[in-house]
C-alpha cells in the first residue's frame, strides 16, 4: 500500500508487484490482493515459519521484506519503465512510500534486539535493487501489468465496494505459475548468527 | 470520571549507586547490603530502580558493564525470591548488546510508545481465580511472530552501554493506576476492590483477542488494555514508535483508522503512532496523549553504565532515544506464568497496586 500513489493505475501496478513477489517466495503463502472500499490496498501474505528455528525465521523475514518493497519496485520498473541503478535510501522511500518502507523495516528489526538503523536502511536498499531487477525482466513486467489490469478492471466495475484478486483464482494462478523469479532474496546486513539464544542464570 | 489527584499514580524511581567494592567482587560481596535490599524492596513494591554501575572506573568497557549488570540483577533476583515472593523458577535473561536504535526512516531519534517487553506473552492479567475468559491458562496474546524468546518477562530492563548523541529518557506508567481511572470513567464510580479491576482488565484482554483478526496486533496496546471498543485503538504502530506507520492491512481493514492517524484530539501529537495513541487514551481515560503523560509519567534520564529495571506487567514503559544509542536488554522471566507461586506473586502486585491508588477512595 502506498499513501502517496499517483492514481489508480499506479496503485494497481504497485499492488500487483506485491502479489507477484509474494507468490514467488518459498517461505510465504499469499492469499489475495485487496482494494478496500475506502481506497486502500494490501496483499494478504502469511507464513508457517517456526520462529524458534533461526534459519526459518530469517528466511521468512527476508521474504516479507522483499514483498514489502515490491510495490514500490513495480511502480518504478513496470509502471514508469525505469531501470534502477544507483538508488539512494531517499529514492527507495519515495518509491515504496513510508508505509511499505516501515513494514520492511519492522520485519528486519525483528531479527535481533535493535539492529542499527543504518544497517536496516542499507538492507532495504539492497533488497529493493534485487527485487526491482527481478521485476525488470520482460516476462515478469508483463505479468505484473496483466494482473494490475485485472485488479484495476474490478475496481472500475465496482467503484464503491471492496474488490479482490485472489492468487488461487484459476486464471490468476495460471498466470502466476508462469513467473520465473528468485524464491528468496538474501539478507546480508542485519542478520546475526545468534538469533534466539540468550544468557540465562 | 477521572480522579484529580496525581498521588499514587506515578511510578516511583529509585537510583542506586552500586558500591565499587561490591562491583569488584560481587560473588564475595554477598546479598547482605542495604542498597541491595532497598532496591529489591522498591522493585517488589511497584517502583523502578536505576542501578549506576560505573563504580570508580572512568570508562569501563561495555563488556565489563554487562558483567556487572548480570551480577547486580542476579543478586536482586535472589532477594526478590527470598523476600518478596518472586517464583522460584524465575531467572535472569540477558540478551545481546544492540547495534543501535531503529527509528522511523531517516529519523535521528525515536519516541518508543508505552509498551511491555515481549508483550506477545508478557502482560498484566487477572489472577486465575478472577479470570472469566480463560486468559490465564497460557497468558499468551499472540504466538507466531515475536522478537526472540517466548518467555514471560516479569521485570524488564536494560543497561545503557552507549547513550548516543543525547542522553535518552525512559518513562514509566503505572498500569493499575491507569486501569483504575479508565474503570472509573467507564462506570462512573471507582472500583470497590482490585477484583473489579481484574475483571475489567480480563474483559478488555478478551475483547482484544476477539478483535485480533481485525486489528492484527501482536501486542496489547494502552487503548486495548483500558477498554476501548474501537479496533483502531488496538493497533500498535510499527516499532512501536510515535513517528511510525501502521501496517497496510490495518489501514485497509479498520474503518476510520485513516482519519485517526491523520489528526488527533489535541492537535499536538506528531507522528501516526502518537496520534493513534492520543485517540486511544482520549477514548478510555478522557485525556489526550500529552495530558496522559503529564498525569502518569515518571521520567528517568539514563547515563552510560545505568541499569534501568522496572516491573514489566504492572507498568508500561516508553523511551526517547538517539539513533546511535546502544543498550543490552536484561529481564527477569519465567517460562510459564502459571501455578501457585506465580499466582501468589501476582496477588501481591494487584493488592499493592490497588492500595497505591488509594484503594476504593
From TrEMBL, chain A:
It comes from the Bacteria. This is Uncharacterized protein. It comes from Umezawaea endophytica.
TrEMBL record, chain B:
This is Uncharacterized protein. The lineage of its organism: Bacteria, Bacillati, Actinomycetota, Actinomycetes, Pseudonocardiales.
